[in-house]
């Protein structure tokens, strides 16, 4: 017996040691993964994509892959195609009117015409110096090139035959453009002038003089009656084509203007500068409308989309960026050239952009010793229809306070200070429905578990339940004496809890609107409410004097009066200011809270012990939520970012940047592949990660492909086993 007991003790001791070793190994893997994700974010910010690619391919961190890993994989595969035939930096790119061809100009002294569908070079057009500028005529039959041989050349776009050479500049030609009707061309030169030519005869019509530096960029207005020029002298100018008379002068850039473009309606002009900004101007008055900030070096190229809704910029910081031309928001940044980007152009349908990898080097005065700088020698095609850094939902006319996914992850509902809630297609970003009816801002929204209803909470002291199909209010809860800050459905959809600035949380029948009971403890504002996953508890986040979260047991009616529920747990003593958001983990074992003290915290839902503090935001943390698997925590902050955290270690995994206002809300989709953020900049954004299947396509021989193959084989084997068992006699199955 003694020997048996000793053996049993030794076995238990060995098992404990083995378990401890497993836990240490898992903790080590988690720490490695978190460190890797932080290095990946740093590599992205530094445009070190090759290092980023190596880090993501490291199989050592594979067991902990989450949203952030797939998010970065998607970023690495935004481009649709890379065109590699030039022998030196690519200095200019342009689309044909039908979008089927591309022309590129290079420091290798050639321009190349490409078939976009196949990626093959159709024609090579030659100069006796670097080709700085290229353009297609509106009919697509001609191509115009400008080179450092001081010549502009007109080519037949199909045959590649040289049709005409324009000579008259006394120095490099830096920019060329066709008039909309194709009858005239304009050229800009290092000789400080722009010249207007007859495209058919080659005759010089007039010379535009007045700039005090090289003319780096030229463009016609859509009606062909004006020309805009951008110069090293830090100005852009508009000229009358008819008589060459200067009309408007733009002078707010603090350094050279490298690129200019008219909007499709001719009312605005965009300019890109050595001062690291792009500006948008009123083309008639010269008034600066707004400035686009984001590049960290020269903005070498600007262009409008064909509908005028977006602006693309490219620069020496190795990025191209797409902006909302009305709201000034950055929609997308692409970084895969690994070199400065000299030129960017929209496809005619606005579904793609092309970029050229290259740059210019010049003397401080912009006149002497100009020569091509470094470049990766490629043209890249980027698909904007399917591959976005973040899908921006635009339509609200004021701050967007809140957002939530539908249960099937196909729709998003948002609530705004503009007094409306709106439902959007989560894939396309199309606005599907609008719900007017509140008389003040909406601070909280949620879908019912079946997705057929939404609840809204408003500063008008009411909450409403809406039928999604009819867009009509079904129930209005109106017993509050102050603002209603938050609302949530119970897991079965039968009840709704609301939290108000009067210090009460009220529980209602979601169909009849009957108030079932009130939870109240003092007069502290309730900023946040949530049901536990099983619906048996309610969680409230309190503020304005009571910096804690409270858990209430709502299924003790058999013991307690249904209208006098008591708190069973207080989470306090850790936050230094208001608790603005609180939520249960999917397994209800933990609670996450967000506070105006710039931190979020993780708590044990049974004992109330504080497990972790998430520190990294530089302003109030407005929102907190768990990923569907409970392994990640998501926060939104007044510092204009959302952050993703490892729920086990509390380490930061990912920062989502792009909003120009406070991030009031951040939440996961039910499938865990997307995140929605709501911001004070008047937009909501959907951030999408790649699927495992997409990554397999990108990395056919990578570790993930093998992992997926193993999973598929295991699933097939399990299905075969089940099928075999189904054929066995009952007594054998038993």
What is the fold's blueprint, element by element?
Layout: H1 2-45, H2 49-56, H3 67-76, E1 79-84, E2 90-95, E3 101-106, E4 110-115, E5 121-126, E6 131-136, E7 142-147, E8 151-156, E9 162-167, E10 173-178, E11 184-189, E12 194-198, E13 204-208, E14 215-220, E15 226-231, E16 236-240, E17 246-250, E18 257-262, E19 268-273, E20 278-282, E21 288-292, E22 299-304, E23 310-315, E24 320-324, E25 330-334, E26 341-346, E27 352-357, E28 360-361, E29 371-372, E30 378-383, E31 391-393, E32 400-405, E33 411-416, E34 421-425, E35 431-435, E36 442-447, E37 453-458, E38 463-467, E39 473-477, E40 484-489, E41 495-500, E42 504-509, E43 515-520, E44 525-531, E45 537-543, E46 549-553, E47 567-571, E48 579-584, E49 590-595, E50 599-604, E51 610-615, E52 621-626, E53 632-637, E54 641-646, E55 652-657, E56 663-668, E57 674-679, E58 684-688, H4 692-698, H5 703-727, H6 730-733
Antiparallel strand pairs: 1-30, 2-3, 3-4, 4-5, 6-7, 7-8, 8-9, 10-11, 11-12, 12-13, 14-15, 15-16, 16-17, 18-19, 19-20, 20-21, 22-23, 23-24, 24-25, 26-27, 27-30, 28-29, 31-58, 32-33, 33-34, 34-35, 36-37, 37-38, 38-39, 40-41, 41-42, 42-43, 44-45, 45-46, 46-47, 48-49, 49-50, 50-51, 52-53, 53-54, ...
Helix pairs in contact: 1-2
């Amino acid at each position: 017996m003694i020997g048996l007991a000793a053996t049993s003790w030794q076995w238990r001791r060995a098992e404990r040691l083995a378990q401890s070793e497993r836990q240490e190994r898992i903790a080590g893997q988690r720490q490695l993964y978190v460190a890797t994700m932080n290095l990946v974010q740093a590599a992205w910010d530094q445009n070190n994509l090759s290092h980023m690619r190596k880090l993501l391919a490291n199989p050592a961190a594979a067991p902990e892959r989450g949203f952030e890993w797939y998010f970065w994989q998607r970023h690495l595969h935004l481009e649709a195609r890379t065109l590699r035939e030039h022998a030196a930096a690519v200095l200019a790119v342009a689309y044909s009117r039908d979008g089927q061809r591309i022309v590129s100009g290079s420091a290798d002294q050639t321009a190349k015409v490409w078939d976009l569908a196949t990626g093959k070079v159709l024609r090579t057009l030659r100069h006796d110096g670097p080709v700085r500028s290229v353009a297609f005529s509106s009919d697509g039959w001609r191509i115009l090139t400008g080179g450092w041989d001081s010549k502009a050349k007109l080519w037949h776009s199909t045959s590649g035959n040289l049709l005409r050479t324009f000579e008259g500049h006394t120095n490099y030609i830096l920019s060329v453009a066709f008039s909309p009707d194709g009858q005239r061309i304009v050229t800009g030169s290092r000789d400080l002038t722009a010249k207007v030519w007859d495209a058919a005869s080659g005759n010089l019509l007039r010379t535009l003089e007045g700039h005090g530096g090289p003319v780096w960029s030229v463009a016609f207005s859509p009606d062909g009656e004006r020309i805009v020029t951008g110069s090293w002298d830090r100005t852009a100018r508009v000229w009358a084509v008819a008589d060459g008379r200067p009309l408007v002068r733009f002078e707010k850039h603090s350094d050279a203007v490298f690129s200019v473009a008219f909007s499709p309606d001719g009312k605005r002009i965009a300019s890109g500068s050595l001062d690291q900004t792009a500006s948008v101007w009123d083309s008639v008055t010269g008034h600066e409308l707004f400035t686009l900030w984001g590049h960290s070096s020269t903005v070498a190229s600007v262009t409008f989309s064909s509908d005028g809704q977006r602006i693309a910029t490219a620069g020496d910081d190795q990025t191209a960026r797409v902006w909302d031309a009305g709201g000034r928001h950055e929609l997308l940044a692409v970084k895969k050239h690994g070199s400065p980007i000299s030129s960017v152009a929209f496809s005619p349908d606005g579904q793609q952009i092309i970029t050229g990898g290259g740059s210019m080097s010049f003397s401080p005065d912009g006149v002497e010793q100009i020569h091509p700088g470094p470049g990766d020698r490629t043209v890249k095609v980027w698909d904007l229809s399917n591959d976005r850094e973040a899908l921006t939902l635009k339509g609200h006319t004021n701050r967007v306070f809140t957002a939530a996914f539908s249960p099937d992850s196909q729709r998003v509902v948002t609530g705004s200070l503009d007094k409306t809630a709106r439902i959007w297609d989560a894939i396309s970003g199309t606005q599907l429905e609008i719900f007017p009816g509140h008389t003040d801002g909406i601070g909280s929204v949620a879908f019912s578990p079946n997705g057929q209803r939404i609840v809204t909470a408003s500063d008008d002291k009411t909450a409403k339940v809406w039928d999604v199909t009819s867009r009509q209010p079904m129930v209005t809860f109106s017993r509050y004496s102050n603002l209603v800050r938050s609302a949530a459905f119970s897991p079965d959809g039968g009840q709704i809890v609301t939290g108000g600035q009067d210090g009460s949380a009220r529980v209602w029948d979601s169909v009849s609107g009957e108030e079932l009971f009130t939870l109240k403890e003092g007069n502290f504002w309730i900023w946040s409410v949530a049901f536990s996953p099983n619906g048996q508890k309610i969680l409230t986040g309190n503020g304005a004097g009571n910096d804690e979260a409270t858990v209430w047991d709502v299924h003790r009616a058999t013991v307690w009066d249904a209208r006098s529920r008591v708190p069973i747990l207080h989470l306090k003593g850790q936050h230094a200011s208001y608790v603005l958001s609180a939520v249960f983990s999917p397994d209800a074992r933990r609670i996450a809270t967000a506070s105006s003290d710039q931190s979020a915290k993780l708590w044990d839902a049974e004992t109330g012990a504080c497990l972790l503090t998430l520190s990294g935001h530089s302003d109030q943390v407005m929102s907190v939520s768990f990923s569907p698997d409970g392994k990640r925590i998501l926060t939104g902050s007044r510092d204009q970012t959302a952050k993703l955290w490892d729920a086990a270690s509390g380490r930061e995994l990912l920062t989502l940047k792009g909003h120009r206002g406070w991030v009031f809300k951040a939440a996961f989709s039910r499938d865990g592949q997307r995140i929605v953020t709501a911001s004070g900049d008047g937009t909501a954004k959907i951030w999408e990660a790649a699927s495992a299947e997409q990554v397999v396509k990108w990395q056919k021989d990578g570790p993930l492909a093998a992992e997926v193959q193993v999973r598929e084989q295991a699933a097939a084997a399990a299905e075969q086993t089940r099928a075999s068992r189904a054929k066995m006699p009952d007594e054998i199955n038993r």
